[in-house]
Every structure is written in structure tokens, then in C-alpha cells.
Amino acid sequence: MNFSYGLEIAEKCSECTGCRNGFFCKLSESMLQAMDDVTHKSTLPAGAILFVEGQSPRGMFVVCSGRVNLSTTSKEGKLLLLKTAEVGEAVGLSATISGLGYEVTAETATACQVSFIDRDNVLELIGNYTEFSLQSARFLSRGFHEAYRDIRDLMLSKTSAGKLARLLLSQSSSSELELREIRIPSMMTHEEMAHRIGASRETVTRLLSALKKRHLIRQDGPTLVIRDRTALEALTI
Fold first, then answer.
1. In what order do the strands lie in the sheet with 182-184?
2. Domains recognised in the chain with CATH numbers
3. I want to staple 65 with a disulfide (CB 3.0 to 4.6 A). Which of 91, 113, 122, 131 is the partner?
């Protein structure tokens, strides 16, 4: 068993004992083996750049462990964090298929292990394996759905409080909606939340403090707990 940056390193996808629920983890053994044949694995510290917005696509990365932030920057230099990719998700897949420049900048939010597949091999996997093609299509479709939802939420919420409330609610799964309290583990930092809603870190800290005083949320160690979902939803209107 190998370790790097405190991570347990999997040498092959087909032998990985970690999470198997991610889009590009829950494939058949034969498909995972085919990916292993063309994959280059690496471990990276937090803050490493996988690719930058506008760069010609070299290929895609699958997150094996850790988290990767996807962001875009305005002409004025304002950063907007669009998404945080989790284990089993691909980054750079859309640009790799289209051949156009990467739409976003991908930077490791934590220490990560990633699997890189160059563009020629990605296109070959899509052409030769129906399973890989369907999983890629499902992943991209989900990504577009999330993008439309995020754009809608940002446009409909006129205040930073409303945008933050929508962001917190979006982190819970549909199966949790009927629970009295919704627990969100591994919550983003205040700075990451600020970049997601287009506000300052100080604003996010102030808004979270106000939500705690109103007993809408509470902090339970590293877990953020939504105590009153209905009241939080009311802020988004």
C-alpha cells in the first residue's frame, strides 16, 4: 500500500478499494481495465493547476481522491467558483471531446490523486466502448443540468443571503429533504462559498453567523447542519 500527501494511492482503477459510486468508478471490471491501459496516475498537493481556462485540451482527468475546484475569471480578475469535482468525477471531458479550449480552470482544492487520459485515448474509448460512451454522455448531461440550475439560482436570488441559502440547500441530496435536520459533511471553506456566490469571504462569514443566530444552521465539527430547511428556502425567494 502506497501513500503520498497523506493519501492512500491506488495504482490501478480495477484494483481500487476506495469509493466506487463516482461516475467513472462504477464501471465494469473490463472497462476499468481498458481505462488502466491508457491512464497516467499522479498525486498532487492542494493548489496544483490541472489546466487553465482557454488552454487547448490535452485530455481529461478523473478525480481518484480529494477535490478539484473548477473556476472562471472575469476580465476584471474576479474569480467565480463554478463547481467542486469530487471522487469519481471527470474534469475537462467536454473540452476534450469538442477539441475547443477548456471552459474553466481546474485547481486541486485538497491533496489529490488524479488519473489522466489524453485526448486521443479518450476519443478511442468513446468510439470503441459503448459503456464508456454512455457514462460520458450521462456525466455531461448531469453537468449541463447542474449548470442551468446554478445559473437560474444566481439570477433569481437578488441578495447574497439568498444565494448563500440556495448554495447550502444544493449541497443536500434529495433523500434528505424530509429529514428534520440535513447534515452536510466536508463543507466548503468560507472563501470557496464566497467564490461560488460572487461575494467576499467577509460577507459569507457574516451571513453564516446571522443564520446561526437565527437557528437556521449550526456547526457540528466539520459538518454543517441545516436545522430549518423551510426558513432557509424562504430566503431564496
1. 182-184, 223-226, 217-220
2. 2-147 (2.60.120.10), 157-234 (1.10.10.10)
3. 113
